[in-house]
Amino acid sequence: MTQQRGGRPGYGTEPQATPGARPGHPSRRRVLGYGLAGIAALAVAGAAGFELIERGVLPGKSELDQLDGACDVAAPDLTRYAEPGPQYDGTFQSAARRTRVGYTIAYPPGHGPGDRLPLVIALHGFGGNHKTTISGMTPAQALALRVAGRPLPPMAMVTVDGGGGYWNPHPGDNPQAMLTGELIPLCQRKKLGTGKRRIGVLGISMGGYGALLVAEKHPQLIAAAAAISPAIWTSYAQAKAANPGAYASAADFAADDAVTHAAALAKVPVRIASGYGDPFYPGVQTLVRALPENPGGVPAQLYFGNGCHTGPFFTAQEPPSLAFLARHLTTA
Fold first, then answer.
1. Where do the H-state alpha helices sit in 163-249?
2. CB-CB contact of 229 with 314 (8 Å)
3. Contacts by 50-59, CB closer than 8 A, 24 or more apart
4. What's the CA gap between 304 and 174, in Å, rounded?
């Protein structure tokens, strides 16, 4: 069983390192291998899309997968879930994004439209959309999982198209305003995420950064946040070199830097998971050091272990991340 920072039991099944700990730290051979593969560009693969592989900066994720078994993770048993509840696709014209966006609403087993439920907003990675947000399963299947032998408490999930702008405002495209001003009201009209602190946010890669950013910007709205392999850069120059479209300007990076504004999470419980072999791992460590001591009044739940920025790690971390959110959403 993993341990949260501060010693509270978590939901994972493998040992965890605390910030600054050395066990499992990438070896010199691995670092050299990453250098040969183009680590400066940051490979972003799996459910998050093939951001830099598509840009031709990296030859492919196989080079990463072969380094000392760095990407090997135990696959979760995704067959142990109840009969999934229904899920529905829809679209709406977003004034904030100035385009029509798609979304999916999924319900837990035994529930459907009209039921009043807590809500998880799930944010997709770079190159993804509302249909590819969850790695390895559908949103409805994710809500039907059994974690540590127990079914998840009932909650709904919504996914939505956020574009490729890293869930932060760009000229003519503001996914943050879309989430808070359009998507959440749409869901609340359906009795989802109503009441005090009944909304959680989950994301992978770009979406992991986005989940933390939403919680930082709207701590009065978000009850808990879970970030899997969050794409954390520590400078605008670093971000621009890897993805010129991630931020519109240096000023925008400063305004939406998850590390700089981590203190805003003082009242929001957070879970963060990252693999030792993930190119974003150093940035995640910087973020962790900036977190408030006890966000939301409890220690942050942190998972660091074997794994890379790839689908297997994402999928393995979804069940404990959902259990973490469920605990905070259903006991609020």
1. 175-178, 184-189, 206-217, 236-242
2. yes
3. 50/127, 51/126, 51/127, 51/242, 51/243, 52/242, 52/243, 54/127
4. 32
Residue 124 in contact with residue 81, Cβ under 8 Å?
no
Q: Interior CA angle at 73 toward 69 and 79, to 5°?
A: 145
Taking the C-alpha atoms of residue 316 and residue 121, their distance in angstroms, rounded to an integer, is 19
Chain-centroid distance of CA 179 in Å reads: 15
Beta bridge partners of 192: 117
> Are 127 and 51 within 8 A, CB to CB?
yes
Structural domains in the chain, CATH included, are 62-71+85-329 (3.40.50.1820)
The rounded average pLDDT for each run of 10 residues, N- to C-terminus, in the chain (332 residues) is 34 36 40 36 40 38 54 78 92 98 98 97 97 96 92 97 97 97 98 91 98 97 97 96 96 98 97 97 97 92 96 96 96 64
- R_g of the chain computed on alpha carbons: 18
